[in-house]
Amino acid sequence: MTTSWTEDHMPDQTGRVAIVTGANSGIGWEAARALASKGATVIMACRSIANAHLAADRIQALKPSGKVVVMALDLGDLASVRAFATAFRQNYPRLDLLINNAGVAHPPYGKTVQGFEQQFGTNHLGHFALTGLLLDLLGATPGARIVTVSSISHRSGVIHFDDLNLERNYKPSLGYAQSKLANLLFTYELQRRLVAAGQSTLAVAAHPGWSATNALRHSNFMRHLNPMFAQPPKMGVLPTLYAATAPDVRGSDYFGPSLLELRGFPKKVESSPRSHDEAAARRLWTVSEELTQVRFEFEDSF
């Protein structure tokens, strides 16, 4: 791995189709911009269509060699996830790259449309369902990758199987850490199942370190420290872009910034021992399929 890797090192993406969730701002916008600049067709999958169109216009003004397309996706509503997957399949016969980036961080207690705690429901269950609904397209596209964006916060995370909605003890940081740990348990279990099914699709993960994005808008403490410690989104996106495009990436790899995992160029990093608990990952998978009513059909991906 190049220790000073930047988006300039990205391979050409011409002809590739990518979905980036939450692409209207922050890390997601930077990912969409960078991929389009290298020739990809990037689907900006966003909850707010108005904001997404403004964000797309900013990318178009840079005159990328690829293009950006806005599509509606609310990960906090599984009906919206299904509608997005259906609409995407009607327009695109392939999917090279799915970047599960969108997320809710440290909000007051709230629930998704289907009644899940909103961080767990949006950050994990929404992306779990989206991935499952598009798995066959990914499997049919040579060299496809699924990149799920986690966080350093996963290290303090615990999956509260007896209270996934945290109705008995909600703290914003507790919910966020649970959802980010779920992202990694999902990624590693997905890769194990892809390998078992003989699939070439890679499931990998990344995190942006401490980046100045809208994800911290609910945390006054973190926002006040941003000017001193946070790196700009253009740097924070590099682990995601590396995971998505670098040729030496392997399944279950996890990438973050090089300097204490807070800032700097991307490198391969280690996640917490809890994220490698295979029994917990299988249990979370089963629960996620039950809650979303999305079953992963690996055999249909050939």
Describe the structure.
The chain has helices at residues 26-37, 49-60, 78-91, 118-133, 135-139, 172-196, 220-229, 233-236, 238-245, 278-292, and strands at 17-21, 41-46, 67-72, 97-100, 145-149, 202-206, 254-259, 263-268. It is α/β, with parallel strands linked by helices and 302 residues long. The protein has one domain: Rossmann fold, CATH 3.40.50.720. The protein has an eight-stranded mixed sheet with strand order 3-2-1-4-5-6-7-8, sandwiched between helices. Helix 2 links the parallel strand 2 (41-46) and strand 3. Helix 3 packs parallel to helix 4 (118-133) and helix 4 (118-133) packs across helix 10.
**Can you tell me the CATH topology?**
Rossmann fold
What's the number of helices?
10
Which residues form runs of ≥5 with pLDDT under 50?
224-228
Number of structural units classed as domains:
1
Largest sheet: 8 strands, mixed
**Top CATH class:** Alpha Beta
From the coordinates shown, what is the CATH architecture? 3-Layer(aba) Sandwich
Structural class: alpha/beta
Strand content: 5-15%
Number of strands: 8
Q: Portion of residues in helices?
A: 40-55%
Mean pLDDT: 93
Q: How big is the Rg? A: 17 Å
- The CATH superfamily title: NAD(P)-binding Rossmann-like Domain
Give the termini distance in whole angstroms. 31 Å
Overall shape = globular
Strand order of the largest sheet: 3-2-1-4-5-6-7-8
Give helix and strand order, one letter per element, not per position. Answer: EHEHEHEHHEHEHHHEEH
